[in-house]
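INFO batch 0412 | record 1 of 1 | parsing
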Amino acid sequence: QVQLVESGGGLVQAGGSLRLSCLASGRTFSSYAMGWFRQAPGKEREYVGEINQSGESTNYADSVKGRFTISRDNDKNTVYLQMNSLKPEDTAVYYCAAEIKAYVYGYWGQGTQVTVSS
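INFO prediction complete | emitting tokens
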């Protein structure tokens, strides 16, 4: 069992930056690839990106590539989402999740709200 808690959301102006954190419980954090997702009001949940267990490999959705960076610190059981050059369309609730098997995310955080004003 893994429990995930996101933090770092808030209100920011367009062009600004935010860093989200996701703290995981348990001793097995380093064995999970981690993903970030987001859901805007009235829209389906959207994949943002992911990072592998060691942190050496990342992938991003085209909509955030070049603006968002995912990293992790396995000693701190934490994965990060650095968001730069934010746009109003980035407004959403952001979730971190642990990948329990290929393309299946079995553990989810409660989400943190990010609002980007124009």
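INFO post-check: The radius of gyration is 13 Å.
INFO record closed
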